[in-house]
Amino acid sequence: MDLNIPASGKKRAVIVGGGFGGVALARALTRRGGFQVVLIDRNNYHQFQPLLYQVATSGMEPTAISFPLRKVFRRSRDFHFRMAAVEAVDTERGRLRTSAGDVHYDYLVLAAGTDTNYFGLERVERHALPLKSVGEALALRNRVLSAMEQAVRTTDPRERSELLDFVVVGGGPTGVELAGALAELQRHIFPKDYPELDIAGQMRIYLLNAAPRLLEGFSEESSARALRDLQRGGVEVVLGAMVRDFDGHTVYYNDGESIPARTVVWASGVVANTVGGIGPERCGRGRRIRVDAYNRMEGTENVFVIGDQCLQTSDPRYPDGHPQVAQVAIQQGRSVAANLSRMAAGRAPEPFVYNDKGSMATIGRNRAVAEIGGRHFGGFVAWALWLLVHLLFIIGVRNRLAVLFDWSWSYLTYDRPLRTIIRPAPRVRPGA
Ligand SMILES: Cc1cc2nc3c(=O)[nH]c(=O)nc-3n(C[C@H](O)[C@H](O)[C@H](O)COP(=O)(O)OP(=O)(O)OC[C@H]3O[C@@H](n4cnc5c(N)ncnc54)[C@H](O)[C@@H]3O)c2cc1C
């Protein structure tokens, strides 16, 4: 069985993953022409991960941050999308095996991103909630709202306390943003929705971070500001807290410290997705696949890896590899597209040079930190910059308008309107 891609006279470039890197590469390559482009993703949509936490906290509809891949490329010529999960690559024969069939490639670009890293903590993996996809964001939204419903029903004070304690593990941008958004639900929404509960007195939001400061990739000044803003918003931040276990009722950290809680969100690290046929000897830190300065997998001529999945240490500014952020993936995608065109024209490829455009994280209404071009911003200015930049990078006019509407609504009304617990319908057996 194969993926039924029609033959064309052009060289075939197969891209695995329709995330930030894969979409930027496919767009650039289809615009340049000269290749047949095949994009493969296990989902039929691109997801805008930076806003997942807003879906999880009822502030944004999932379709506002998911965009159908076929729509992105519907005007592109000699482009083919296939929804399939990639399983293995045979670099000798130039073939890729997927859940839906095989496909031959002349050039292969892996852009399959990362998955949540539980660092071998099996019980944490079983009981905690990750936040890496739209599906996981919806699962978290359901869990938060269901915990509130259960807390209203229970007459057991210990159970109510467990249900009303929410723990976020990981003090990077995802953990900080999620904890800040949960604190806003606590302040503005839940007291009105659950008048039977003493939200101010009983609900607690914890942010546990193993490192001694939040937002380690940012300056000390921004870390301190994020800590202060979160604490002012009511989040209990515990620094130097190394989580060791979570049994579904209590989260244990350091030596003997614990918090009773049913909802624990694991935002503590990522590990690169694996592709069969690429052994651990080709991988470095975080299981990222090692590449040269042109994003070529070491030891190959026609296999490239970009974005979160690759480890590129050729630039002396980034001896441990680039940060795993959207801009790196986008710029590497464009760089590989340009190099494929150069190589097709008989010219030498050019090494990738990352242009760091800055970092930002939001902490809540009117509160954020941003570092752009060596300048540090906080408060409303950083928050407005954060809104603008995220809006610009969302794919599609409809999605941008939907996000803008959701933000404006929440800002003006203090409401988070999407507080629905939507579960997949149970399967009905014939005759049952
Ligand atoms: C919650 C969260 C918040 C974030 N916030 C920010 C932020 O504010 N700013 C920022 O710059 N970065 C942020 N990031 C990081 C950023 O999203 C990543 O760096 C970026 O998505 C990496 O792009 P990528 O193309 O390498 O991978 P991804 O965008 O992760 O894309 C990978 C794609 O591969 C597909 N895929 C995976 N495995 C397979 C397979 N076996 N077969 C087929 N398809 C597969 C996936 O479905 C996905 O579409 C955040 C990440 C998360 C999880």
TrEMBL record:
Record domain External alternative NADH-ubiquinone oxidoreductase-like C-terminal: where: 357-412
Domain FAD/NAD(P)-binding: 12-333
Transmembrane segments: 377-397
Name the UniProt record assigns to this protein: NADH:ubiquinone reductase (non-electrogenic)
Family: Belongs to the NADH dehydrogenase family.
Keywords: FAD, Flavoprotein, Membrane, NAD, Oxidoreductase, Transit peptide, Transmembrane, Transmembrane helix
GO molecular function: NADH dehydrogenase (quinone) (non-electrogenic) activity
Alphabetized Gene3D superfamilies for the sequence: 3.50.50.100
Entry annotated with the keyword Cell wall biogenesis/degradation: no
Catalytic activity as recorded in UniProt: a quinone + NADH + H(+) = a quinol + NAD(+)
Entry's EC annotation: 1.6.5.9
Entries under InterPro entries matching the protein: FAD/NAD-bd_sf, FAD/NAD-binding_dom, NDH-2, NDH2-like_C
One Pfam family named in its UniProt record: NDH2_C
The UniProt record lists the keyword Secreted: no
Superkingdom classification of source: Bacteria
